[in-house]
Design brief:
Keywords: Lipid metabolism, Lyase
Radius of gyration: 18 Å
Structural class: alpha/beta
Number of helices: 11
Largest sheet: 6 strands, mixed
Mean pLDDT: 93
Order of helices and strands: EEHEHHEEHEEHHEHEHHHH
Distance between the termini: 41 Å
Oligomer: single chain
Family: Belongs to the enoyl-CoA hydratase/isomerase family.
Strand order of the largest sheet: 1-2-3-4-6-9
Protein name: Enoyl-CoA hydratase family protein
Organism: Streptomyces melanogenes
């Protein structure tokens, strides 16, 4: 359990997340993931990183129960900083990152996938931000990298999800495969990338990041400020207390 790194093939580093039952990461898990991705990217022998997960879903975001157990704000601050580091690690990884997504990809999972270079998904993969149902805000920055602007807003306000097939139609998913074929499909693409010259692929990654129209680090940090404001006002706690109930129940304005 936790985050592990293996080298399945020359030039490829496989970073795997495993936090049962749904890969909702505790604070330390986000930092472990950030460290693993950064370490893999710095390895001169690595030319592509594959980010994958064990279990029924890729990522369910932060561990809400960890926040509920915290009488103060330390868990929230830790989660904010941990997510920021993990998302940035994927984006700033010195080599391309291929995300292999199965099942649910929610909340923080969108931050990881939205910052990845390429996404390969299984047929059962679903993508969304249930933040408004969890007393949080954030990662619209990253959802906007996966779907058009107005669809992003609709998904964000409703907490609905989009399927892998829908994202394939928008061009943000490279390939959709059956779940048993997911890792092989991600490794196949990583293998093609890893055939490129190591120095040139790193220059290519830096160049592409340099022409991005949005500074994902700054825009996400801006979003996080509103999450903390929601906590200070008491709105977030009230909504988090309904976690596990029917969405929307108990969320009416007091």
């Amino acid at each position: 359990m936790g985050v592990s790194t293996t080298g399945p093939e020359k030039g490829i580093s496989l970073v795997t997340v495993d936090f049962p039952p749904v890969n909702a990461l505790p604070v330390h898990g986000w930092y472990e993931l950030a460290d693993a991705v950064r370490t893999a990217g710095r390895d001169p022998g690595v030319r592509c990183v594959v980010l994958a997960a064990e279990g029924r879903g890729f990522n369910a975001g932060v561990d809400i129960k960890e926040m509920q157990r915290d009488p103060g704000h330390s868990a929230l601050i830790g989660a904010n900083r941990g997510c920021y580091e993990a998302f940035a690690a994927v984006y700033e990884c010195e080599v391309p990152v291929v995300a292999a997504v199965q099942g649910h990809c929610l909340g923080g999972g969108i931050g990881l996938v939205g910052n990845a270079d390429v996404v390969v998904a299984s047929e059962d993969a679903t993508f969304g931000l249930p933040e408004l149902d969890r007393g949080a805000l954030g990662a619209a920055t990253h959802l906007a990298r996966l779907v058009p602007q107005h669809l992003m807003r609709a998904l964000y306000y409703t907490s609905r999800t989009a399927t892998a097939r829908e994202l394939l139609a928008h061009g943000s998913v490279w390939k959709v495969v059956r779940r048993p074929e997911l890792l092989d499909a991600a490794l196949e693409l990583a293998r093609e990338i890893a055939r490129k010259d190591g120095s040139l692929i790193r220059l290519a990654k830096a160049a592409i990041n340099g022409i991005d129209p949005v500074d994902v680090r700054r825009s996400y940090r801006f979003e996080q400020g509103f999450t903390f404001e929601a906590n200070l006002s008491g709105v977030a706690d009230r909504i988090r207390d309904t976690f596990g109930e029917e969405p929307g129940k108990g969320n009416e304005r007091a």
